[in-house]
Amino acid sequence: MKILLVDDAQSVAMVLTSRLRSFGHHVLVAENGAVAVDSFREFAPDLVLMDIQMPVMDGFKATDLIRKFEASQEWAWTPIIFLTGSDTTDNLVTAIEAGGDDLIAKNAPEPVLRAKMKAMARVAGLRQKLATANANLLEQANRDGLTGLLNRRHMDERTDAAWAHACQVQGSFAVLMIDIDNFKRYNDHYGHQMGDECLRSVATAIDNAARHSGLSRAFAARYGGEEFAIILPNVKRGDFELLAMAVVTTVRNCAVPHEKNADWGIVTTSVGGAFMPHANGLLGALFRSADQNLYLAKNNGRNRAQTSILEAGSTAP
Q1: Is there a single domain that holds both residue 287 and residue 168?
Q2: In this structure, which of 100, 180, 234, 246 has its CB flanked by the most CB atoms within 10 Å?
Q3: Do 132 and 213 share a structural domain?
């Protein structure tokens, strides 16, 4: 386990650290509660051994702050065992009420300490399995079941958060709206099962274009039906325009047959994009501008990208 040991007495810390390391655990020592709270955030321990009486900040206050921090995390609960000079019933009750999970005497016999650590190691293993399972469930909940891209709900959540940050720092922001050309004709001609395969192929191509763009903050999502979106926080105008063209090219290069896409004979996409140098105002204006450009791309012959710059304070119909 990764154990955070919090004790202001150097001699006690040295003895306990030596014993815990002899059991095979990795130990980080904090000399008071304030240091423990900071160390907890960075070290992410499997277990905290917390002294009670310490200078700067005592163990009860540190435990309270740790629990408040954990409450803000997607998955968090770390066992906290208080260290005491006497493991009486009153001390145990006080420790539990203060947010701890157990109590152990600093001079506990080695067999007792070893047994406690074995029990906590089992808890740590179960925590990790549960955290992994929860992360997998969350990932599934955030993905579109057909294409594997982010779903609309999660896209909206991430986009709103990214937009709020961009507005706060006056960073750039861009949106690409992507539509499969003549997709209804594709479905009518090839059938809905092949239509699903087409959606998956296009989604993969769009995702690859976004991933290979070098724009680490860009993310692709299924917007709905045959429409997709790429959200680009903190992007340069030139990179935004290059990605718009890359999406068109990448999908076209897949050469998925589409007899009813008369001008091309393969599956193609139209892309509409809007770029704002300094995020400001309502995010909806950026999406409306991108959507307007998407229709311009379609009206101008499809299989192309149409982009524009939206200045702060301007609006899109």
Answers
A1: yes
A2: 180
A3: no
